[in-house]
Amino acid sequence: MSDKRKRIRTPFRKHHQSQTRRGDLTRDFQQDRIDEEAPTSERVSGKGELTRHRTVTGQPQADDAKGLPVELEVGDAEGMLGRVLCVHGLASSVQGDDGRLYNCVTRGLLKTLSTTQRQTVAVGDRVWFRRVGEDEGAIQRVEPRTNAVSRASRGRQHVIVANLDQALIVTSTCDPPLKANLVDRFLVTAELSRVRPIICINKIDRVDPADLQPLVGVYGQMGYTVLLVSAATGFGVDRLARLMKDKESALLGQSGVGKSSLLNAIEPDLKLRVGEVSRETRKGSHTTTAAQLIPLKHGGFVVDTPGMRQFQLWDIVPEEIAGCFRDLRPYVHLCRYPDCTHTHEADCAVKDAVADGRLDARRYESYCKMLSGDAD
Ligand code: GDP
Ligand code: ZN
After folding, report:
1. Looking at residue 339, which CATH number applies to its domain?
2. Residue 121: enclosing H or E segment and its boundaries?
3. Which of 54, 64, 136, 306 is the most buried (most CB within 10 A)?
4. CA pair distance 240, 163, nearest whole angstrom
5. Residue 324: φ, ψ to 5°
6. CA nearest to 199, candidates 144, 234, 236, 147
């Protein structure tokens, strides 16, 4: 590393603090402050307690495998902000804020760390890069992440996608039949990753929408946005498109529920691109877990992961599940035993609430199933 380059700290963006929702869940997350003054952004991975960690951005700490180095090479003035669409080793494809695509390399300390320890640039990252050619650049700095969906692999956290704004949980009224328990699982995943979930019930053309009202009501009462849509008739597609505009969204859901059809309904030009992306990722077996972002014409990005199921339940610590059920959450502190699992214990406020109808019985059953590790 040239000693001409000085590193400075990236300014702390205040709104990050409001984006952490510590305290929402039933218990506090592990906090291991590394440097009280360093700018930090915290998030919780989708894994359980053991793998949970903060993504800390701040002064580079070479021996800190968890820290995401944030550095600015002073003197490289003509930087441009962009969004990482996909990563192949040290090369990434970045969409600059000018709308153009740049093939970028990772350099400096970022490069050192990514080769020796962990990936430092992830899909979804906002990065500063310096243009070095017509469509080439060098990444200099990674902006603090608002969140990161990650997975442990060989003892390391691997960020699948960063800065996700929302998870569109797509389900269908039939073919395949609506599986509310699966929706609940995705909701838990989203809550754990601190990503806003939006429930999207597709193929509404195949049923009488009134039949869905009880289910929609239960989720609506918890504060979730529920959309009834039909990729076939276009019903609800405008609203979905509005919700996706300028956001980074992931579509979660079993195959066959209509995820591709909905994307194509929103942006017909995607048709080919979505197909191409999945064909390409199927080819290389080593890249099958890599996500990529697809830019939307009207603003925003969609995450394309080969096999969206990767976002499905990781091995969550059982004690965390109740805290991820928004409707159970208000009751868990009222149980007689602080470690109540809300299954067999006496004086359980959750069970009482189910018994007198304050809690939806199906949601409670869904909770019990998840706790016991039953697959749907
Ligand atoms: P994906 O696997 O989730 O991407 O689902 P697809 O988009 O491939 O859709 C699966 C099947 O459902 C296809 O045959 C679609 O034509 C059909 N489909 C998708 N959306 C709708 C819808 O709103 N109504 C009806 N009737 N069929 C749909
Ligand atoms: Zn209880």
Report:
1. 1.10.40.50
2. none
3. 54
4. 20
5. -95, 0
6. 236
Q: Is 169 in a helix, a strand, or coil? A: strand
For residues 193 and 163, what is the distance between their CA atoms, to the nearest angstrom?
11
pLDDT tens digits, 75-95: 444 689 999 999 988 899 999
Which residue puts its alpha carbon closest to atom 26 of ligand 1? 203
pLDDT tens, residue by residue, 285-310: 444 457 889 999 999 999 977 654 44
* Gap from CA of 58 to ligand 1 centroid (Å): 45
Question: Does the residue 190 lie in any domain?
Answer: yes
Q: Of 155, 99, 156, give the one whose Cα is nearest residue 122.
A: 156
Within a domain: 152: no
Number of domains in the chain: 3
Residues 172, 278 share a domain: yes
CATH number at residue 266: 3.40.50.300
User: What CA–CA distance (Å, rounded) separates 144 from 142?
Assistant: 6
Q: Ligand 1 within 6 A of 275 CB?
A: no
pTM of the model: 0.75
- ∠ Cα 197 48 252 (to 5°): 30
Could you tell me the residue range of the domain that residue 335 belongs to?
Answer: 318-372
> Is 257 a pocket residue for ligand 1 (Cβ < 6 Å)?
yes
pLDDT tens per residue, range 188-218: 988 988 899 999 999 999 999 999 999 999 9
